[in-house]
Structure formats: structure tokens, C-alpha cells
């Protein structure tokens, strides 16, 4: 269950099914396209974070906007825009924010 533990699944059943199909893929029984479809159906998506929650998260970690931005590999202006609601984080940045929310800033250091 080493691969499954590094991902967030929709449920325990989804994790078990995904791990099984991942084993089939590793054995050459399932192609890459099918594996991608299982990823999309089993792995949970990152929930959007409202501006006030992003700011609270940064303050909880006791870092400035420039330091927070460096951890996330984005500009300090972008962090400011997120906190003011001018822009919304998406893709890898949203996933990183979810990891920081769950495990703290040290988890991505």
C-alpha cells in the first residue's frame, strides 16, 4: 500500500480499487489511458480555498507573504492577490495549499 498512502482518495474503497488497478498497470495488464481514467475517478480533487482561509493558513504557519510565496514557488504578488480574492489558486498551487493546510508548511519544505 506504499503508493496508495501518498495520494488522497475519495474513499477507502476507491483507494483499494485504485491500488489494485495500479498493480495491474505495473504488471502490464492495464494501459496508461485506463490508469489515467482510474486516477480521475478515484483520486480526490483539491477543494477551493477562500481568500480568508489562505490568509489564515499563512498566519497559522507564521510566515510573511514573500516567505509563503517562496515555499509555494509563486510570486508574493500572487499570494497577495489570493488573499484579497483578486485571483484564485488552481492546479499545483491549490494542491500544495491543501497539503499545507493538512500537514503544515514543513511538509513541502
From TrEMBL:
<dbReference type="InterPro" id="IPR010982">
    <property type="entry name" value="Lambda_DNA-bd_dom_sf"/>
</dbReference>
<dbReference type="Pfam" id="PF01381">
    <property type="entry name" value="HTH_3"/>
</dbReference>
<dbReference type="InterPro" id="IPR001387">
    <property type="entry name" value="Cro/C1-type_HTH"/>
</dbReference>
<feature type="domain" description="HTH cro/C1-type">
    <location>
        <begin position="54"/>
        <end position="98"/>
    </location>
</feature>
<dbReference type="InterPro" id="IPR052359">
    <property type="entry name" value="HTH-type_reg/antitoxin"/>
</dbReference>
<protein>
    <submittedName>
        <fullName>Transcriptional regulator</fullName>
    </submittedName>
</protein>
<dbReference type="GO" id="GO:0003677">
    <property type="term" value="F:DNA binding"/>
</dbReference>
<keyword id="KW-0805">Transcription regulation</keyword>
<keyword id="KW-0238">DNA-binding</keyword>
<keyword id="KW-0804">Transcription</keyword>
Amino acid at each position: 500500500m506504499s503508493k496508495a498512502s501518498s495520494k488522497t482518495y475519495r474513499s477507502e474503497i476507491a483507494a483499494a480499487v485504485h491500488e489494485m488497478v495500479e498493480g495491474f498497470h505495473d504488471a502490464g495488464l492495464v494501459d496508461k489511458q485506463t490508469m489515467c481514467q482510474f486516477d480521475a475517478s478515484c483520486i480526490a480533487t483539491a477543494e477551493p480555498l477562500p481568500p480568508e482561509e489562505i490568509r489564515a493558513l499563512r498566519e497559522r504557519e507564521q510566515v510573511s507573504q514573500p516567505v509563503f510565496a517562496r515555499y509555494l514557488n509563486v510570486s508574493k504578488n500572487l499570494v497577495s492577490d489570493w488573499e484579497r480574492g483578486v485571483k484564485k489558486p488552481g492546479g499545483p498551487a491549490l494542491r500544495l495549499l491543501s497539503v499545507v493546510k493538512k500537514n503544515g508548511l514543513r511538509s513541502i519544505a
